Amino acid sequence: MQALYAQLLVGLINGSFYALLSLGLAVIFGMLNIINFAHGALYMMGAFVAYFLLNLGGINYWWALLFAPIIVGIFGMILERTMLKFLTGLDHLYGLLLTFGIALIVQGVFQNYFGSSGLPYSIPDQLKGGMNLGFMFLPIYRGWVVIFSLVVCLATWFLIEKTRLGANLRAATENPTLVRAFGINVPRMITLTYGLGVGLAALAGVLSAPINQVRPLMGADLIIVVFAVVVIGGMGSIMGSIITGFALGVIEGLTKYFYPEASNTVVFVLMVLVLLVKPTGLTGRAA
Amino acid sequence: MPETAMVDAPAKAATGGNILQVRNLEAWYGESHILHGIDFDVNAGEVVTLLGRNGAGKTTTLKSIMGIIGKRAGSIKFNNQDIIRATSDKIARMGIAFCPEERGIFSSLDVRENLLLPPVVRPGGLPLEQIFDLFPNLKERLNSQGTKLSGGEQQMLAIARILRTGARFLMLDEPTEGLAPVIIQQIGHTIARLKKEGFTILLVEQNFRFASTVADRYYVVEHGKIIDGFSNAELAANMDKLHTYLGV
């Protein structure tokens, strides 16, 4: 039974990363209509920025949670201003190819300097150790990742669905020309939205650093599963991507317990089934 | 001299100074040349209507003024400032508000969010109480999804949301299209009331019977040019010509 709970916890942690990353992808797709293949590389950059902040600047994990998303978010906004904005109105394929190219370049540069092995990033002192819950042992850091990710996901959902700024974003997703004709600076909003989506990826990277180590290809390994999560949840749906992210993490964890051989493929099998039955995803809109 | 400048300017209504001056306006959709040199003026406080058949260039004229047509040439002066190169958000912030033909109600926003979407660009916009006084239906449906409203209510919402912004120059594109006579009448009353309150309105209409109840002056657009213009007092005398222009 302990093993089942342990796998459930692993599933929830993976689900946290899936949710944060697919949420960022959903936000970016909704606003820019771009399938952001660079997302994994930006997630990796978040972890590396945390590593640099700690080792070069002595800035700890807690500040990294704030600074890494801002720094990588600014890098993302520069990408949007200098490259992605020129793809407005073009086929999705162009955005996909451009961001895929950006991912290869970013990962290549990091691999050139840091190789493929992982760099250590230790758990902050306040989150070391664990708690005995009676039915299982809970490492505090892992519990923190699940709860913090959930809070960030719900805060992002609230921002987009329940605030005035979110209403502007949703309206600009539907009809950017008209929203701009109301006096709202839509290009600036698009840049900031891309920065927000990228910042979420970087935040996931910082959260992941103490668990998975900091590696140039850490995003490349994860992003394929995250795209499957997004396809299952449906592109462009905020709550859909959060729920699907956590749910698929848990399903993956349960599969690891009940039928470990299928644990790496269960998400893709589900993706195939969903595509056959509902091609727009469980909660998504047509692209 | 551009050909369109040959059209006599219609008699001015008893209103303020010139607020919008359009000269030799040309516009393109991709490779298609739509406007071929439009010239007209709008004075502060008046209601000016652009009449013309489908595809004549009326909507394109409004969109060109609003800055949402890719390629434009000529001169558009609003309060003596040339806005031909300005982006649409800057134009809106100068005090021009646009209500599009398709109404542009957002399905992912409820009525309240739709109403509050356009930012206040200058002081002097109508407070919500006054807007609900003009359109009582909206107050009852604030939490409904924007596109779940009836066609008439959507049109009211589309007009209501630009009244909040403080813009005093409104461009309404076919506000009566597809609406029941009773709703058209209500929109007519609203436009008359806005005019009384000092708004300047540039209206695009195919329904000149409706336009005649609210307009001070008319311009006729054909093939991307202004081919005629007259005041409301001259409407009766120009009826035959107008029937020919509009093909009715």
From TrEMBL, chain A:
Keywords: Amino-acid transport, Cell membrane, Membrane, Transmembrane, Transmembrane helix, Transport. One of its GO terms (biological process) is amino acid transport. The chain crosses the membrane at residues 6-27, 34-54, 60-79, 91-110, 141-160, 190-211, 223-251, 258-277. One of its GO terms (molecular function) is transmembrane transporter activity. Its main location: membrane. PANTHER family: ABC TRANSPORTER ATP-BINDING PROTEIN, BRANCHED-CHAIN AMINO ACID TRANSPORT SYSTEM PERMEASE PROTEIN LIVH. Signal peptide: none annotated. InterPro entries: ABC_transp_permease, BCAA_transport_permease. GO terms for cellular component: plasma membrane. This is Branched-chain amino acid ABC transporter permease. It comes from Bradyrhizobium cytisi. Belongs to the binding-protein-dependent transport system permease family. LivHM subfamily. The keyword Cell membrane applies. The keyword Membrane applies. It is found in: Cell membrane. It comes from the Bacteria. It is a multi-pass membrane protein. Pfam families: BPD_transp_2.
TrEMBL record, chain B:
InterPro entries: AAA+_ATPase, ABC_transporter-like_ATP-bd, ABC_transporter-like_CS, BCAA_Transport_ATP-bd_LivF, P-loop_NTPase. Keywords: Amino-acid transport, ATP-binding, Nucleotide-binding, Transport. Gene3D superfamilies: P-loop containing nucleotide triphosphate hydrolases. Residues 20-248 form the ABC transporter domain. This is ABC transporter ATP-binding protein. It comes from the Bacteria. SUPFAM superfamilies: P-loop containing nucleoside triphosphate hydrolases (SSF52540). It holds the Pfam family ABC_tran. Belongs to the ABC transporter superfamily. The keyword Transit peptide does not apply. The keyword ATP-binding applies. GO terms for molecular function: ATP binding; ATP hydrolysis activity; branched-chain amino acid transmembrane transporter activity. Involved in beta-(1-->2)glucan export. Transmembrane domains (TMD) form a pore in the inner membrane and the ATP-binding domain (NBD) is responsible for energy generation.
